[in-house]
């Protein structure tokens, strides 16, 4: 739902990663059957997403992407969308690829997944949530923006965009 609201914001071009990568149809089919993804499933999708981000950044555009980058190694791949970023360098503050974690309890997330699945808006069943939470790594050193996802969706979008504007304004180009 957040990505629907974000697409109406003039601040950033926005795309949903599930709609971007043709290779993702196999992974969404796998997840919709309740089968967790492996790194072998995720890496090609993340690399395609990184390339799409790099194309936008190379043209001087800012872009927002909706995706699940649960582990630091996945975020490192996406950070490489900024051609000045060096993987493993730990130089997150100067990287133009930023991340937000929408934070809510497992119960709230499970309820939302069930609701969205019933409405045909999401492919992942709630039964996979725990496997996703088990993979989640948030390292404070990465500078990930954490946003309360229990507030109204419009407030989530407003808070996220405001915080990203601050971060991008301070990014050395």
Automatic annotation (TrEMBL):
Record-linked SUPFAM superfamilies: P-loop containing nucleoside triphosphate hydrolases
Molecular-function GO term, any one: ATP binding
Enzyme Commission identifier(s): 2.7.1.12
Gene3D superfamilies attached to this UniProt entry: P-loop containing nucleotide triphosphate hydrolases
Pathway entry: Carbohydrate acid metabolism; D-gluconate degradation
Classification via InterPro entries: P-loop_NTPase, Therm_gnt_kin
Keyword Oxidoreductase: no
Keyword Kinase included in the entry's annotation: yes
Reaction catalysis annotation: D-gluconate + ATP = 6-phospho-D-gluconate + ADP + H(+)
Enzyme class: transferase
UniProtKB keywords: ATP-binding, Kinase, Nucleotide-binding, Transferase
GO annotation (BP), single: carbohydrate metabolic process
Superkingdom, taxonomy of origin: Eukaryota
Family: Belongs to the gluconokinase GntK/GntV family.
Protein name as it appears in the record: gluconokinase
């Amino acid at each position: 739902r957040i990505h629907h609201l974000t697409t109406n914001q003039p601040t950033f071009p926005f795309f949903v990663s599930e709609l971007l990568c043709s290779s993702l149809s196999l992974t969404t089919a796998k997840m919709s059957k309740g089968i967790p993804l492996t790194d072998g499933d995720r890496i090609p999708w993340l690399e395609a997403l990184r390339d799409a981000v790099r194309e936008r950044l190379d043209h001087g555009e800012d872009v927002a992407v909706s995706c699940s980058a649960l582990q630091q190694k996945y975020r490192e791949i996406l950070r490489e969308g900024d051609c000045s970023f060096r993987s493993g360098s730990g130089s997150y503050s100067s990287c133009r690829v930023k991340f937000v974690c929408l934070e809510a309890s497992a119960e709230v997330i499970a309820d939302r997944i069930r609701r969205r699945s019933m409405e045909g808006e999401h492919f992942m069943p709630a039964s996979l949530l725990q496997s996703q939470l088990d993979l989640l790594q948030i390292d404070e050193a990465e500078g990930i923006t954490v946003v309360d996802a229990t507030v109204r969706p419009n407030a989530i979008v407003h808070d996220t965009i405001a915080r990203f504007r601050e971060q991008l304004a301070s990014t050395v180009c």
